[in-house]
Amino acid sequence: MPTRRILRLTGSDTESFLQDLITNDISGLDAGLVYAALLTPQGKYLADFFLKRDDDAVLLDVAESLADGLIKRLSMYKLRADVAIEVSDLNLQRGTGPAPEGALPDPRHPDLGWRAYIASTESDDGTDWEAIRVRHCIPETGIELHPDSYILESRFEPLRGVDFKKGCYVGQEVTARMKHKTELRKGLCRVAIDGAAPVGSAIEANGKPVGTLFTQSGGHAIAYLRFDRATGDMQADAATIRLID
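User: That's the sequence. What structure does it adopt?
Assistant: Structure tokens below.
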């Protein structure tokens, strides 16, 4: 079963419709792929996705597990806008080796290679994506990114997934306040790990909860931590963890 679903949005209002909803500036389509998210009005994560201009349409590349909910939410916002949403017959191809014709760089980080949308079966070139994600602390849909996430705590700013100059979008007020009026006290970061523990394991220090452990690779991991408690050695199941970033 494909891990991604590629939607096609058409109609004269498509780009203005998306601009009013998503965290990033749709004008970035002129340069390539746009990485963005749709939030709740309270500023919490609903879905992250990639957008690509395709002639008069916009392709939307989203995790299969989130696709039905995203279609439902977009349809709720559509009202009388001239926008049609359909499932395309395209599939994702991605890799870090030589890029096929029509491929575009992943906008989140150069080490994530390229993404292309093809009519054949979904595929990639065998890249160790978890190692790359852990090395650069890049969250993944359904693992580090979940419905309780705030995108700034999930590193959307360094991953070029949010634009603070584009104007209003759903959840913008909360996101802007977190950016300009508060210092992040919690968030995703890279840690060193000695041992292993299941994804989702609670992290503790001095008997107090500190956060949650996620993807692990090569003696490092992505963790969500409360920064004021993330000092010294911490424990997650049988693993010992130390903040390195």
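The domain at 4-180 is CATH 3.30.1360.120 (Gyrase A; domain 2).
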